[in-house]
Amino acid sequence: MNKRVDLPEKKYEGYIFDLDGTLVDSMPLHYKAWRKALARAGAPESVFREDEFYSCGGKSANDVVYFLNERYGLVMDAESTAADKRRIYLEMLEEEGMQPIGEVLEFVHSLGDAPKAIATGSAIPGARRTLAA
Predict the structure, then answer these.
(1) Which of 28, 47, 104, 124 is the most exposed place for a label (fewest CB within 10 A)?
(2) Which pLDDT does position 87 carry in this prediction?
(3) Where are the domains of the chain?
(4) What is the C-alpha to C-alpha distance for residues 30 and 129, in angstroms, rounded to an integer?
(5) What is the reported pLDDT for 1?
């Protein structure tokens, strides 16, 4: 997904960056992992269109499954489906790797010694592996 990156012009004492879709272009891989996990859980292919996926940004994996169950009248187990999605994502990450969003990475490097942090709604093991990749 090529999107315009709006970088701050004002200088701040510190910066907090989101991980998925901001520092790294991980959203397409997350979507592919969701598609595979949902298919394994018995969801029809028509469930969880890409626009729905992006509208669920910030929801926990379990909450995404609850949302889909309610919206489509499904009975997928939230914990096992979410855990399967996380496993699939990590497998795909190993196979396909991950690319930073270059413009944002350049901005991070331009900040020098300014305090920086990463915030994410991702599970910690997945976030660490995403950063390592």
Answers:
(1) 124
(2) 95
(3) 15-132
(4) 13
(5) 46
Q: Please, are residues 35 and 117 in contact by the beta-carbon 8 Å criterion?
A: no
The 10 Å CB-count burial string (b at 16+, else e) for 3-39 is eeeeeeeeeeeeeeebbbbbbbbbbebbbebbbbbbe
Q: How large a percentage of the chain has pLDDT more than 70?
A: 97
State whether residue 115 is helix, strand or coil: coil
Res. 41: pLDDT tops 80: yes
Scan for tokens 């889909």, then name that residue: 68
Question: Which has the closest alpha carbon to 94: 48, 125, 71?
Answer: 125
CA angle 46, 39, 91 (to 5 degrees): 125
How do residues 90-126 score in pLDDT, each as one tens digit? 999 999 999 999 999 999 999 999 999 999 988 888 8
